[in-house]
């Protein structure tokens, strides 16, 4: 009987018979052909840490959004939320790859197989205290209204940062930002349309939207507080000091909430950036358990 090639055989043959890692990307270098030289006068450790901040925010929020797959209120929205998550996952891959090229791997490489790409080692083999994501993206979804309010806030902040990062002295960050602004503009506008629809809809949808706003607003406490790394890189022309985007973000969010007939809560007092320092609540460890579980059980698996 003739051998029937399976899809796995075909994939393996496409790479010369060399097994590919089963759980991550494992196909090509996302930064192939890109100059990854660290700009003059910039500490590679700082650059890597900053890319972790941006990459972790994208990765964690993408994982939160995928929790709505099969649970969104309508099929079209399920596809939209899934596509937004994929956009963020693409940003995360590039940013974590950049962090790896700057030498930031640490314990993640010790836990992973040597054949696993840097971005996958960072995504799958770091513990919660090694993640540099904010509490804004790590918080549980809540109901659909709260999820869309959080997406509106997170996308508005990220879009303001990426718009400025297009002028970064680091060519990789500038390229990621130039592509990402188009994606993030869609994310922000999609979420804004839903917040308008819910806030100015039925009494119940209005109540839920306002409850979502009230729950998300305290999570902004440390979003605009720069870390030492961000401050140093901002002076070097590589990063964006989050404090500089605050007025823009406040203006956009206030405009959307006003049109949605929703009350704008008082802005929380600035707090130290706990998430950027690796201080997280148990919700992040729980989320990472789902994201990383299979890869950690079979760290050397190939197909």
TrEMBL record:
Taxonomic lineage of the native organism: Bacteria, Bacillati, Actinomycetota, Actinomycetes, Geodermatophilales
Protein name per the record: Ring-1,2-phenylacetyl-CoA epoxidase subunit PaaC
Pfam families: PaaA_PaaC
Entry GO CC: cytosol
SUPFAM superfamilies named among the record's database cross-references: Ferritin-like
Record-level GO BP terms: phenylacetate catabolic process
Species per Swiss-Prot/TrEMBL record: Blastococcus xanthinilyticus
């Amino acid at each position: 009987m003739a051998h029937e090639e399976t899809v796995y055989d075909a994939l393996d043959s496409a790479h010369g018979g060399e097994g590919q890692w089963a759980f991550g990307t494992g196909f090509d270098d996302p930064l192939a052909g890109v100059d990854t030289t660290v700009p003059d006068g910039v500490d590679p450790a700082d650059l890597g840490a900053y890319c972790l901040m941006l990459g972790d925010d994208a990765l964690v929020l993408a994982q939160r959004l995928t929790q709505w797959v099969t649970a969104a209120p309508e099929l079209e929205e399920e596809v939209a939320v899934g596509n937004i998550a994929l956009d963020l996952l693409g940003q995360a891959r590039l940013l974590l790859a950049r962090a790896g090229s700057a030498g930031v791997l640490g314990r993640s490489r010790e836990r992973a197989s040597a054949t696993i790409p840097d971005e996958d080692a960072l995504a799958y083999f770091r513990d919660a205290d090694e993640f540099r994501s904010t509490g804004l993206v790590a918080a549980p979804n809540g109901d659909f209204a709260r999820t869309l309010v959080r997406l509106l806030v997170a996308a508005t902040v990220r879009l303001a940062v990426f718009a400025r990062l297009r002028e970064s002295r680091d060519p990789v960050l500038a390229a990621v930002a130039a592509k990402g602004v188009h994606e993030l503009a869609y994310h922000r506008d999609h979420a804004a349309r839903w917040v308008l629809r819910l806030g100015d809809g039925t009494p119940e949808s209005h109540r839920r939207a306002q409850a979502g706003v009230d729950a998300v607003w305290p999570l902004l406490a440390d979003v605009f507080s720069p870390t030492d790394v961000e401050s140093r890189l901002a002076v070097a022309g590589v990063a964006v000091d989050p404090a500089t985007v605050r007025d823009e973000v406040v203006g956009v969010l206030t405009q959307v909430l006003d049109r949605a007939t929703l009350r704008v809560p008082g802005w929380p007092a600035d707090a130290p950036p706990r998430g950027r320092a690796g201080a997280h609540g148990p919700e992040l460890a729980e989320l990472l358990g789902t994201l990383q579980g299979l890869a950690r059980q079979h760290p050397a698996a190939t197909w």
